[in-house]
Amino acid sequence: MQNLFSLKGHIALVTGASSGIGAHMAQTLAKAGAKVVVAARRKEKLDDVVSAIKASGGEAFAVAMDVQNSKTITAAFDAIENHFGVVDILLNNAGFGGDFTEVVNTDEANWDAVMGINLKGAWRVAQQTCIRLIAAGKSGSIINTTSIAAHGQAVGLSTYAISKTALLSLTKNLALEMAPHNIRVNAVSPGTFLTEMTAAEFNEDGSNDFAGEIPLGRVGDLKDMDGTFLLLASNAGNYITGVCIPVDGGHLIRSL
Fold first, then answer.
1. Which CATH architecture does the domain made up of 2-248 adopt?
2. Which residues, 6+ apart, have CB-to-CB distance to 124 below 8 Å?
3. Minimal CA–CA distance to 122: which of 95, 140, 159?
4. N or C: which end of the chain has fewer CB within 10 A?
């Protein structure tokens, strides 16, 4: 059964890998046997992640990538192919919360920034991954990090939620188009987890006032996402495409 989830022989790219979900999942993928490339705008911020992977016996290196800049994406993929080979697992994780304001108070700059990273940035990296996999005749797996915000509404969260809902649509449409090439495209919707992006939602002691409203009675620990991502990345999920799996402690099914 362990071999079913093994990523040995695979090359994984994780965007937004300098902290939070990206940094954690990069290490998880490496422990499963993948050669891991971590990407962020500032390459120096990735040194700790690469060091942690190597200290655990894994293989990793870092590339500079701004998902809002196509030239940096192309250059990063070229560097990856020169170093490891063609990426066949993409964790499309780069994200931006923006200003949490109501629609009537949202300005165009904030809208464009959120959409530019969460949607267009993810599209750019996924497109480049698919182009190169098709050219190489390889199968692959793309996993987009959405959010439980993609499945509902919340006052002041509209721009972010819309970007993640659109990313969910991208996931399904790309899954359909890439199926003939045996490239699977899925998404994971995390619930409440403590990361740099969500730190403002937590108290100084790391507690969260909202935890009691989550059916499982607690906020998530990053390791709670390991199994879901490994399922979608590995041969264990080789007949799964076009789906989105919430990892949220039951948040989306809580009682009315």
1. 3-Layer(aba) Sandwich (3.40)
2. 67, 70, 73
3. 95
4. C
DSSP per-residue codes, 25-57? HHHHHHHTT-EEEEEESSGGGGHHHHHHHHHTT
Per the DSSP assignment, residues forming a β-bridge with 89 are 12, 141
Alpha helix segments (H runs only) across the chain: 20-31, 47-55, 70-83, 108-115, 122-136, 158-178, 226-233
pTM: 0.94
- Token pair of 57, please? 């016996």
Q: Could you give the dihedral angle defined by the CA atoms of residues 236, 181, 244 and 247, in that order, rounded to the nearest 10 degrees?
A: 40
In this predicted model, what pLDDT tens digit does every residue of 193-228 receive, in sequence order? Answer: 867 666 667 777 777 777 778 999 888 899 999 999
Which residues are designated catalytic? 160
| Secondary structure E strands in the chain | 11-15, 35-40, 59-64, 89-92, 140-145, 183-190, 244-247
